[in-house]
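I have been asked to look over a protein record a colleague put together. The record follows directly below this note.
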Amino acid sequence: MSTGSRHARAVACDSRSSHRKAKVMEFPSILQGDSLTRLLQGAAAGAALTMIVGFNWGGWALGSTVDKVAKDRADSAVVVALAPICVDRFRHAANATENLSELNKISYAWDRGSFVEKGGWATMPGAASPDSAVARACAEMIATLKP
């Protein structure tokens, strides 16, 4: 063996032995034992508090809630747009005065809406049946009319 190969083997042995002596990296003290428990508890409490504040006062909403609110607003916008058409159809009916006095005899709002539905004034052009919400809104508007 030459001196160069002996030297190379000695260096290789030294690097292997020094590799074995290296210490494993230790976690900081905040990530060990009781401190880690407290850190995780604080993170969980902070996340829960953030969600409570966000959903109750921050204006956050679930997608299903947003969809429901959007549908309700769209439905009420349709009622607001179609109720005046219903009132106009009621007023231009052949026996409008008689129908108005008949409607004013009815005491319950639900029954007034049913009266408007049965009269056909809440059935919009192109629709197969009357819309009950439009009929109730129409009946409320008609009740304010003077004979």
